[in-house]
Amino acid sequence: MNNDNSLILIADDSPTNISLLINTLKDDYILGIAKSGQKLLDLVQKKLPDLILLDIQMPEMDGYEVCKRLQDDPETQEIPIIFITAMTDVEDKTMGFKIGAVDYITKPFHSAEVIARVKTHLSRKKMREELNAQNIILEEKVKEKTEVIQKMLGATIHAMVLTVESRDPYTAGHQERVAQFACDIASEMGLSKDNIEGLRLAALLHDIGKIRVPVAILNRPKKLLDVEFDMLKIHPEIGYNILKNIPSPWPFAEIAHQHHERLDGSGYPQGLKGDEILLEARILAVADVIEAMSSHRPYRAALGINAALAEIQKYKNIHFDPDVVDAALQVLRK
Fold it and tell me: What pLDDT score does 147 carry?
């Protein structure tokens, strides 16, 4: 027995599925059952669960609507929701992630998969709670314990980075390399140490949103289909939602949010242009492209530094800030 006191609510109108889930999880967690979307919402009002397993196809109110209502309520929007459904289309999965689900399991499911995913997302929830708690301490005691608390924050961020990279081993080390290169560019441009520290944190966490992108897409050995690329493109928005409530003197959540924006407005997810994009995000964009093109990916071999430099020079003042491009070239020459 795991002796975990976490409360998991199961919402499904199928007695068979409910029975299977109960048998799978009853030895390790406290369980609550709802046979409709409204009953689930009623249960949540009585006691906030640690995680919800939610069917999509239910009478009166489907799982999508239940998820939207929970996400719209500040009291419940941090509860991890895992859709567990017979709907297998990529469009259905994309919709699930867009409205706030942390994972998507298709029926018929394997008990071992459910156990593993539930355990993973409960661990991540506890990690976020610990990170928020550490930042509260940072605010209260910043004058006397700044150095100690920043080390704790760094360790937690490092753990979050490792969590992302564990799902995408082909890009292991990518975020650290991007962070180092971005800081070098920022230093070349004369940014303050304080701004560079905010950029460093943003660079370390810029791909945290990929935590909700299916592993099959991250590790696909061929070019992504359009619908798969659409799923991948939501990761800056997801990352921003994960990071935005972490108290910090730096706007690292917004920097990470904007790292795929482009000067001409052709980027995503907001289509920002020019100075609408934070300078730190413009620096991160260049560092990210150079590192990614220079490294191996599942769908291609490393293109090399010369190809990466040609890319940023080709799109200088179109996609990329010309001052950032010049600084990056200067860093590489040194």
Answer: 67
Cβ contacts of residue 275 below 8 Å, gap of 6+? none
Residue 300 is classified by DSSP as B
Tokens coding 242: 């994960």
Confidence band, pLDDT 50/70/90 cuts, at residue 192: very high
Crossing angle of helices 63-72 and 90-98, rounded to 10°: 20
Other residues' Cβ atoms within 10 Å of the Cβ of residue 59: 10
CA–CA gap between residue 77 and residue 245 (Å, rounded): 12
Instruction: Please name the amino acid found at residue 175.
Output: Q
Q: Letter for the amino acid at 299?
A: Y
Q: ω into residue 15 within 30 of 0, thus cis?
A: no
- Preceding omega of 80 cis (within 30 degrees of 0): no
Cα–Cα dist 277/180, whole Å: 21
φ, ψ at 57 (rounded to 5°): -85, 90
- How far apart, in whole angstroms, are the C-alpha atoms of residue 201 and residue 157? 8
Tell me the pLDDT tens digit for each residue of 32-48: 999 999 999 999 999 99
Q: Which residues contact 214 (CB under 8 A, 6 or more apart)?
A: 93, 104, 231
Q: CA 325 to CA 315: how far, in whole Å?
A: 9
- The dihedral built from the CA positions of residue 187, 189, 195 and 196, taken in this order, carries a sign that is negative
Of the candidates 212, 228, 231, 209, the one whose C-alpha atom is nearest the C-alpha of residue 220 is: 228
* Cα distance between residue 240 and residue 259, in whole Å: 11
End-to-end Cα separation, the chain, in angstroms: 58
Question: Which domains, from first to last, does the chain contain?
Answer: 7-121 (3.40.50.2300), 139-333 (1.10.3210.10)
